[in-house]
Design goal:
The chain is an alpha+beta fold. The protein is built from three helices and eight strands. The longest helix has 17 residues. The mean pLDDT is about 90. The protein binds D-MYO-inositol-1,4,5-triphosphate. D-MYO-inositol-1,4,5-triphosphate (I3P) binds next to loops.
Length: about 130
């Protein structure tokens, strides 16, 4: 059963570039290192690509996989105190991964915050 995933799980809800820094992995703190990431949100996960979308697509053959973040049970919150940059929010996953996302452009970061928050709120918590 469940061989064919529901169509909604496959649908991309939003994609674009943001500044990203992963600051914890499995609860273990990492050195903050901001970089531009191509970000793809679908109903239950976010994928972070290191390269542009074009490069990511052309790299499919090389097996260059994006970092995938399960949104089930994840938390999202503004994180003013975690950076000297403006417009930073944090996503924390059930597995203890922490990501900061940032854009200098107010409406872009607001759109992303609400899109991710809506996706999380629609999902079961575990
Ligand atoms: C970090 C780098 C980050 C900065 C961070 C620094 O230094 O400058 O950009 O975060 O500040 O520690 P390094 O490259 O030497 O690791 P913000 O840009 O988000 O402020 P922090 O330690 O206060 O988080």
């Amino acid at each position: 059963k469940d061989v064919i995933p529901p169509l909604e799980q496959l649908m991309v809800e939003k994609e674009g570039y943001l500044q990203k820094a992963k600051i914890a992995d499995g609860g273990k703190k990492l050195r903050k290192n901001w970089s531009t990431s191509w970000i793809v949100l679908s109903s239950r996960k976010i994928e972070f690509y290191k390269e542009s979308k074009q490069q990511a697509l052309s790299n499919v053959k090389t097996g260059n996989k994006p970092e995938s973040v399960d949104l089930c049970g994840a938390h999202i919150e503004w994180a003013k105190e975690k950076s000297s940059r403006k417009n930073v929010f944090q996503i924390t996953t059930l597995s203890g991964n922490e990501f900061l996302l940032q854009s200098d452009i107010d409406f872009i970061i607001l759109d992303w915050f609400h899109a991710i928050k809506n996706a999380i709120d629609r999902l079961p918590k575990d």
